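Following up on my earlier thread - several people asked me to post the actual chain instead of describing it. Fair enough. Here it is, all 505 residues.
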Amino acid sequence: MADYVGAIDQGTTSTRFMIFDHGGNEVGKHQLEHEQILPQAGWVEHNPVEIWERTSAVIMTAMNKLGIGASDLAALGITNQRETTVVWNKNTGRPYYNAIVWQDTRTDRIASKLEREGKGDIIRHKAGLPPATYFSGGKIQWILENVDGVREAAEKGDAIFGTTDTWVLWHLTGGVDGGVHITDVTNASRTMLMNLETLDWDEELCGFFDIPRAMLPEIRPSSDPNMYGKTTKTGPLEGEVPLTGSLGDQQAATVGQVCFAPGEAKNTYGTGNFMLLNTGTEIVRSKAGLLTTLCYQFGDEPAVYALEGAIAVTGSAVQWLRDQLGIISGAADSEVLARQVPDSGGVVFVPAFSGLFAPYWRSDARGAIVGLSRFNTNAHLARATLEAICYQSVDVADAMYKDSGVELEVLRVDGGVTANDLCMQIQADVLGVPVSRPVVAETTALGAAYAAGLAVGFWNNTDELRENWNESKRWEPEWTDEQRAEGIATWRKAIERTLDWVDVS
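Reply from S.P.:
Thanks for posting it. Predicted structure:
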């Protein structure tokens, strides 16, 4: 057996390749950012060709730095930004349009129309999702309706769709020369097109968006002993490695955090925040504004489901302080600046740049900074930004309790923002439970590696994976119940100020 498992983590702002040993330890990594294309307000795009080029580059660089070859990898897994939509020509490999990113809001009228026509409840029941700009179905429809030639190519079977896992897998397995067109159950569950019960594309849902079935990839388990395919000798690995694991990024983080039992939850702090609660093999249909989604499926075992609270803007709010306002020069500076003040000085920042996701689902909302006085400084705004990350997670945790009746005892956290000690302390304070960060904070890539490795016997079972998990740091709540209640009440008053700002009727 080879010594390592590789994982491609194709994220919203960057792509990385990570290499793990049997203990789940990172032994090699390389990462590159890609361009964020913002054609107009509310539109967010990526260049799919650039994403594939970056993927190839990070694989080759990480392998070369470690001095290993394809034969040293037992398997390869992929994890990816979910919902981001690519449509390309299977004969030429050329995208018809830029990738439309999950944050993009151009499909708000498509989502609103579905709701007005009474189709929203059908989508919620079958797909576990509300009609929203977030998901892939409306993005595919927009490309079919607005890009010349795509509808005709789709009807002929030449134009195919995929989220970025599918795009990368297709290239790794040969592209125009025999590349496989597949996705896994977790990514398929984010399209508004897959039926949660059948784990297959649903004809009625596809009809709502007028999407030809032939465009859609084959749906496979997240960890597949039958293998999706192998990398090609002409590709970046220059050899054949089994491709056996694929998970949307937040499900991958759930696997990386070894949340394999019903009731176990994790929160990933990245561009946005994503809290997932494992509900086991039971489909729990949310009544509190959460998503019902696939958690993972390992081989022939029954699919495992989750409740998810997706928050659009958290880490990217810190980027906004850096890139748009220029009040910090790097993400780490947000903590230094915020520590200059004991609290936000009455300032509340709701970063609803792309509307509000869970549990509100209001595409008409826009960002607001309220409570300002002449007294306030950029330090108060930095502190309010960190508080916004944490209060949004409180809203999701409350909704999870309403839906499941399960009270959080501890919140497992991962992602880049967890390096901010102040932010994690605020999270423990406003949530009222301990916050725990693992030794391996990049659990997204680790989860993809776990899925791939389980399929080929590199790891024997999930118990073995649990033994790899170790706590790095824990934050205990320090606030009183009164402080917590007052803070949450003020936050929710600010939320009200963001609503009905944009007309999406």
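The mean pLDDT is 94. That should answer part of your original question.
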